Amino acid sequence: MVLTSLEILAFSFIAGIFGALLGLGGGIIVIPALTLLLGVDIKYAIGASIVSVIATSSGAAVAYVRDKITNLRIGMFLEIATTTGAITGAYIAGLISPKYLYIIFGIVLLYSALAMLRKRHEELPQNVVSHPLAKKLKLEGSYFDKVLNKEVKYNVAGVYSGFGTMYVAGVISGLLGIGSGIFKVMAMDLLMKLPMKVSTATSNFMIGVTAAASAGVYLMRGYIDPEIAGPVALGVLLGATLGTRIMQKMRNTTIRKIFIPVLAYISIQMLIKGLGV
Amino acid sequence: MEKKVDRDLMLEKENEELRAMELIISKALTIGITTSAIVIFIGLLMLIITGNSGYPHGFYPTSPVEILKGFISLKPYAVILTGLLLLILTPVFRVAVSIITFLHEKDYLYTAITTLVFIILIISFILGKVE
Q: What distance in Å separates residue B113's CA from the closest CA in chain A?
């Protein structure tokens, strides 16, 4: 039991670092590690992952909000869509067999890897014109980039498509317990054209709130097993704290390049499991 | 001229108040997260040392009331779950605090948006209980 707890703690620590870096919540590491390496039932893995998402978000939030990288207005506005979606997803989850969850999970990850690959050379978004609604909602902002050593001002496009994708992201979050930061970062990055760091930091803030919406449901259904979720929470909290420091010293392009192969690898693993090859 | 200086001073004061408030929120969150981590850690240690979860095999409490009852009688599983419950409540707490922050900024549009998010969160908790 001690060994298992330590194993869980170790990979949760790594999940926390990557989660904080990419705004992904760490579920993409926690779920496969628990199910594939330790043979945990997918439902308890999802319960632990929801906890990991909240731990990443809270652990990273303190630093990102203090340093003003997180755009709180964008986060709150989009959160209306994600929380509603999360409730929908948590209720559908009981109706779908684990096999399909694996397949959906695999496809989601593979798609994210390809989308990230396409944007691998872009450091900051260029020539973005703000959507009229973005102006009305005061979504534009600025942050200090420690690597570029300058204040970066940014505009916000695609408010409607971003909002719509966030609802879908919420549904997936409730369904798979992955925090669906992938979708959130992608929506902010590809549709709303925010700088990568603002996207990941804001996603980090959002995933915790969305996950909290479904965590209540999972807790009362008994999917949050203290023996699994406990060490996951501890490991992820420690990892996320370290991850925020690393993120600020990295280039946006570096962050993308590190993670593409990891995403591709895990997505294929999950697809194989789901298809029963 | 004098009026403009007054207004600048007021704005500066407001900004300072806001920053001070953000710092307080940031500190409160750090304390909350640290507390939950410590509680989970103690629960895990209790579980590992005693080898007893405090509940029949394969069982653990799933409602906040049961969890808190177990916490009071120091059952290891309940202690871990109390820490997890604290952790789950942090984002909810943050949203609640943001409502106050936006209200303080007199940003009524975002006070409304944030309140809506908070209400959806509360609904989700209630839905989870009914099911």
A: 6
